[in-house]
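Input:
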Amino acid sequence: MITPIWLYLASKEMWRNWGRFLLVSLVVALITLLVVFLAGLAEGLSLSNKEFLSKLEGELVVFQEQANLSLPSSQLDNETKRKIQRVSGVADVGAVGFSSVFITNDGNDWEKSVSLFGVELGKPGEPAPLEGRRLSGARAKEVIIGGHVALSTGLNIGDTLVVKSTQAGEEELHSLEIVGIADGQQFFFQPSIFVPIQTWDLIRPTPIVDNSQRSMTYNIVNVKMVNSSNEVDLAQIIQQEVQDIEVTDRQTAYEAVPGYQDQQRTFNTQQGFTLLIGILVVGGFFQIQTLQKVGQVGMLKALGTPNIVVSLTTTTQIFITNSLGVIIGAFATVLLASTLPPSIPIVFVGQQVAISLVTLLLIGPLGGLVSIRYLTKVEPLTALGLSS
Amino acid sequence: MKTVLTAESLRKQYAVDGDIITAVSNISFELRVGEFIAIVGPSGSGKTTLLAMIAGLLTPTSGRVILAGNDLSLLNDKQLTALRRQRIGFTFQAHNLVPFLDAQQNVELMLRLNGRPSKDGRVRAKDLLNSLGLGDRLNNLPSQLSAGQRQRVAIARSLIHEPDLVLADEPTASLDTSLAYQVVKTFADLIHKQKRAGIMVTHDLRMCRFVDRVIQIVDGQIIQSTSDCSELEALANVELPDNLSESR
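Output:
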């Protein structure tokens, strides 16, 4: 089989000048590392914010109307929950209470800040444990811990977890038995633990001493629909039939978490600038190469080399150099991520990594467009020292 | 002998700052198979412009070039590129070789450009380089060759694809006298041996002793065209080194 002339010229030049091309590949690799790392960090940090809400079983989330979709600010009562339950199209509802507390083990050897969730047993919002069993009763002194808590504290099923809660100005300690471990469900940059809703009501931080003086409230209601295809319609119906609430889908709910969108925009901007730098680096390198090769290209054209061969030769070199850089960068990122401590929130999601890598593969041809256009304009007359 | 090239009333004019500059004026000549001619003249006389028009790199203001039966004025860019690739061999004054290809690969380049790389082609390239005294330099890059060796590689490249016409633009410009004689003599020998037609553009009249005819140009016009041996020697007017004295 005859090697096409453009591939022959491209490969010979790269082989003879491998150091120069490898250097650019390594720069692309560093850019790839940065872009994919930023994508992983953006996803990891967004998960730290949204993981609990994004993994809720139900399709809709109900907030108090005046809470502006802020979970800590929202306060709902049992009457509201019952009204939501009665709306046609609602399959089931589950109340979820949220507090931020510190936990420790029974020896008080360490302390960790976590999101404490109160969930209704058998209702939307209750996590399904990956190990162990479900919570057994509405007032049980039991807890299911998220995977992140298990990983960072070493706590396991059967261990005792102590919740430190400030109640009426005093620090109270509440011992809970770990009965299960669920997958990671972070919220507000904290790992999560789950207790029965009435246990949560007893142990959560509160300014009131006498529990009989206050009624049971929680933060949100998670709604599971009969038919999950008409989220918007059902959300409107619930809002019309129940007063003083705001109903939204899970995505809108977690996008409303304070700082979430600003954080994502910051990362997207950083990625955009990094990609722009990549385009300029690749474009700059090939433009310098092109300027150095004007005489040689003129000679090749005078010999009868068509423009398409000249263009394909450079395009091939750009593609190979860039692809090699992206591959090296991708491997370097995996290697780097595997050496980082679990406390650094890096999460690689297949689709996002694929989008980043495809974008990185495109920066080469984009950066090289100017050089390729320049090369097609080189006059064969330059070989004779003339110009048209 | 069959006519390979016909130049008919070639004229090239440029507009510079509103003035019309005539680089080549009313030049006509024919070139036959096996004939090697030199176009000589001082710098700025229009000889390279003439060569560019013959090669189809520059469109004449008037007149026409017929190469191997093809009227170049009737061909589009793509056809002209193909014609250069298939019918013409080139050596240039500078940027002659592809820097990342070795000597043999540079010679084979014309076969590859024409889609005809083959074992037979490799052998012919090797033989051609051997005949030019470069048998031990086949795998050397241009940067590892002397100026004379590079020109000889370019000569081999201009002949490997068996073109109808070989064009050489100042092939001896960067060579010392002894090397220049050797290069032009080699060129002339190969053109005669392979029955090609060749045109060498040079400002160095000493090279005229190796060609069959000299066309002398001044200010874009032919002032003399001669194939008379004594006239050519007179033009050259230089003592030859002993090893080249039997060249003509």
